[in-house]
């Protein structure tokens, strides 16, 4: 009788192991609840249209302090042109942010603190973009107006500087229009 019980127990353990969700390749979807807040723009921000009423703020991974007073430059209207990324040795900085559709509008910031001459935006998925703020070391803030247009997967030139500039931060207000969107920002030299 004990041999029969032992065999039954071994079979039960093997079956449970083979047919577990992990063994079948199923993953549990983890839902992270994020609090919604209002969009904060500083006085002098050049975009005057109504901004989203509620956004989810993703925490910045690398805090960067801008020591100069902020001065907003006139907003630039963005033309979405797909480009190729420069050679790997020209890229001096990069970071990514993942956004899900259920988050709604997301306010995300990238702490760069490096010098370069061009910023690139790589979108993987479908994303609606509102605006971007590029803050330089001298306190100038260049706002890029995406005009709440939806853009598909591709690499786009976000901003081109004619001279080598020290970029401190990039802030992007975006919303995923697909289940999942990934934004990557690159600084090239």
Fold and architecture overview:
It is a single chain. Helix content is 9%, strand content 49%. The chain has 189 residues and is mostly beta strands. It has one domain (34-188). Strands 1, 2, 3, 4, 5, 6, 7, 8, 9 and 10 form a ten-stranded mixed sheet that branches.
Helical/strand content category? mainly beta
Tally of DSSP helical segments: 1
Categorize the overall geometry: elongated
Which parts are unreliable, with pLDDT below 50 for 5 consecutive residues or more? 26-31
Helix-residue proportion = under 10%
- Total individual domains: 1
Radius of gyration: 23 Å
Round the mean pLDDT to the nearest integer and report it.
86
Major sheet attributes: 10 strands, mixed
What's the SSE pattern?
HEEEEEEEEEE
Residue fraction in strands: over 45%
Number of strands: 10
Q: Give the distance, in angstroms, between the N- and C-terminal Cα atoms.
A: 76 Å
Q: Can you give keywords for this protein?
A:
189 residues; 10 strands; mainly beta; ten-stranded mixed sheet; elongated; 1 helix
Give a short summary of the structure.
With 189 residues, this protein is mostly beta strands. It contains one helix and ten strands, in the order αββββββββββ. The protein has one domain (34-188).
SSE topology sketch:
Elements: H1 2-18, E1 36-37, E2 55-57, E3 71-72, E4 76-77, E5 91-100, E6 105-124, E7 127-136, E8 140-151, E9 154-176, E10 180-188
Parallel strand pairs: 2-6, 3-8, 4-8
Antiparallel strand pairs: 1-2, 5-10, 6-9, 6-10, 7-8, 7-9
């Amino acid at each position: 009788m004990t041999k029969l019980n032992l065999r039954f127990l071994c079979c039960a353990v093997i079956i449970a192991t083979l047919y577990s969700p992990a063994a079948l390749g199923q993953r549990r979807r983890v839902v992270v609840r994020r609090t919604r807040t209002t969009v904060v723009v500083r006085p002098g921000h050049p975009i005057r249209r109504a901004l989203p009423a509620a956004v989810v703020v993703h925490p910045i991974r690398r805090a960067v302090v801008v020591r100069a007073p902020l001065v907003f430059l006139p907003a630039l209207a963005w033309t979405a042109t797909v480009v190729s990324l420069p050679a790997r040795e020209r890229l001096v900085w990069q970071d990514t942010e993942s956004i899900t559709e259920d988050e709604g509008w997301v306010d995300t910031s990238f702490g760069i603190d490096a010098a370069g001459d061009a910023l690139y935006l790589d979108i993987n998925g479908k994303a609606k973009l509102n605006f971007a703020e590029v803050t330089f070391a001298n306190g100038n803030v260049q706002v890029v107006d995406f005009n709440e247009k939806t853009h598909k997967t591709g690499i786009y030139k976000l901003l081109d500087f004619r001279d080598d500039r020290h970029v401190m931060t990039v802030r992007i207000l975006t919303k995923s229009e697909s289940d999942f969107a990934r934004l990557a920002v690159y600084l090239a030299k």
